[in-house]
């Protein structure tokens, strides 16, 4: 009899635990794993986000983000917002802009579905890029379907964003367009563990981050913003000119989870799009 009570009590506790975990909103799923220095980078896709909710359609969709909360105002009235349409006729060759230096290596990562995208967090600060002499450390990367940036008015099938932060808190996002093509085996490990529901961080085996990039690292740069609330500006955007490929099957597996998680393009205004191609 005593044993039964113990079983019963532990069952009740288990049920409570399940309800408590699954009842958590996407916003709280990783709050226990963040620290202050990671906050700005995490906010790129609002892993740690207070209410209200936002989404990619309806009353909480991109055209309403600026009204949802005071600190989302830049989403509605910002002047240097992202993404943008990259028109090749507007590209300006920079005499001083060097191709970015990417120092990515084999890295332990964790994966989560934060309700807005699938995000992979780098477990160590060993991956970084150098942009005009400043080092930006990789915090996380994630995916959009379809792409957020356009090239001459056209979206790519998907877009990959590597989010970096410098020691002084500046953000740099490296964007890589993904086109339908051959299967991309560099993503096999991640794709085999895509979390179908909003999830807590789960450890993934070590992956080779350098293999996720195209060979050619020539890029287009401009000054923009986070593409999700709070749409904070002064983000250094680097969009690689060469896309990578994924198979139709790989793309559709992501699209099943996120049929649409892209923000429409924003006005470029007087901003410059520079390229390191001479
Ligand atoms: Zn993004």
UniProtKB/TrEMBL annotation:
It catalyses: hydrogencarbonate + H(+) = CO2 + H2O. InterPro entries: Alpha_CA_prokaryot-like, CA_dom, CA_dom_sf, Carbonic_anhydrase_a-class. It is an enzyme of class 4 (lyase). One of its GO terms (molecular function) is carbonate dehydratase activity. It holds the Pfam family Carb_anhydrase. PROSITE patterns: ALPHA_CA_2, PROKAR_LIPOPROTEIN. Residues 1-21 form the signal peptide. SMART domains: Carb_anhydrase. Residues 52-278 form the Alpha-carbonic anhydrase domain. Its EC number is 4.2.1.1. Keywords: Lyase, Metal-binding, Signal, Zinc. Belongs to the alpha-carbonic anhydrase family. PANTHER family: CARBONIC ANHYDRASE. This is carbonic anhydrase.
